[in-house]
Amino acid sequence: MQKKSPSLFNLAVIVGALGYFVDVYDLLLFSIVRIPSLKSLGISQEEIDKTDILNIQMIGLLIGGIIWGILGDKKGRLRVLFASIILYSLGSIANGFVHTVGQYAVVRFITGLGLAGELGAGITLVSEIMPREKRGLATSLVAGIGLSGAVFAYFINVAFRSNPEGWRTCYFIGGGLGFLLLLLRVGILESGMYKSIEQSAVRKGDFHLLFTNGRRLKKYLTAILIALPNWYVIGILITFSNKFASIMKVQDPVDPGKGIMVAYAAISIGDVLIGFISQWVKSRKISLWIFHIIAVIGVIWFFLLQGATSTTVYWVCVVLGFGTGFWAMFVTMAAEQFGTNIRATVATTVPNMARGSLALVALLFKSLIPSQGYFKAGWITGIIVFAIAFVSLAITEETYGKELNYIEPL
Fold it and tell me: pTM of the predicted model, to two decimals?
């Protein structure tokens, strides 16, 4: 009898999607409540501007990405998926109890460690259990549903922001959602591909393997650089959209929080659609080219907003968000390029390295401001970022329909 193909809505896909939903909720919640939460701790605006909690969280993400990725190949995708959910859920709850900046920083670092593991483990698990003809659709659903967690975070904050201590409740909700998610773990099975090598002497989870072979290193670096536009758009253009709007004399005040919310709503839609487009054209690369071009159109429109209304700015944020709605596809392509013995390591480190790239993009942007001015520095940074991403995408191998049941040689 022929084995029944797993459903697109099987439990592993659902848990992966909901896990990423809580992950994104917590990650974006900190950006949303950072200022009011620090003010409630008695910190002045001048001191808030000097705090480096966001970078501390990003360090946690980078370190956690390597740790969880290695463990995902050594101990299994399923164990890492749920261990990471437990850690960031505990971290989210602990965020609600902090009373000093030092405590806040430590807890955000720990939460960052936890947040680093969920997406990579989930995408790897889903990629390995789904048949190749459904793989792109399944991982797109994981990211599409997951990224809507940012929208949920925005509205949860709106519901509680009238209370100076309401940000604590927002964190408690995130932690509670994470622990509720753990109830769904019953019935999820480990990847068969991983089980086939679990007890073998195959070298698993060796991060050094990525750097001992030129071809592997090129694949790894290009997998990361493809996503540079995502963090340029979110971390520079939309996060500082109020500053750009002021320079361009936009008619009404612009709320970056609202810009992030509408952008992430569009990103979640894009992340689902890109799976269907990839399926239709039978190419990961073509679908990524389409979305990168849409993002370029959005960026050009953004810098032509002189004298526009705030409503127009938010519509541009929608276009920018949709154009960068390729998160799932970029992580899926990364996972598909490497063997079972280091696949989780790649799928977990790549998105966290891409997240961490925001620090370098921001450094480039800030270094250009003294000589070029804020506005010009913004579009020059964009040209550089997209040029790097385009070259990386051009030399990346096509992975649509690729057989994943193989081992990466030494």
Answer: 0.87
